[in-house]
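Question:
When you can, review this sequence-structure pair and walk me through the tokens.
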Amino acid sequence: MLRSLRAIEGAIDAVLQRVAVAGIVALIAVMSLQIVSRVVFTATSWTEETARYLLIWLTFLGACLAYRRGRHIAVTVLSDALPPLGQRVCRGLIALVTIAFMAVLLQVGLDYMALQSFQQSAALRIPMSVVYAVMPLSAAIMAYMALIDLLEAVSGPPGDTADERHP
């Protein structure tokens, strides 16, 4: 079961990587167009808004990619000093806290999407709920990744470390 969950996590990661690269390319293109249009033509209003929304999506999706790779800021002095079993317990507790936080973020994101569902963006005229959909989406993805971390901490061998699991 854990192997199939990891395979799904890998597939999600692969999709997120491609979306992030496409988002960065789009962000560069939109910002370049914005600069050129301000210098050469009349400034276009939609480029600034598009760049802002792309940056919001890239930030949240990038956080998912960073979580999978263990790249978020962490203080590991205590857990590194623990024996292997203590390290597994510590990883399990961290995963539980992460799942709880992501569950709250998911609910807040869904509530915020519902609150903003009647509003449209000024220049693009898209529903603001589309812009804010990345919050519950990324929370759900990170909660799934944390669940896998929890299952690995519970079922894994005592010497297994988070750095070995994440590429």
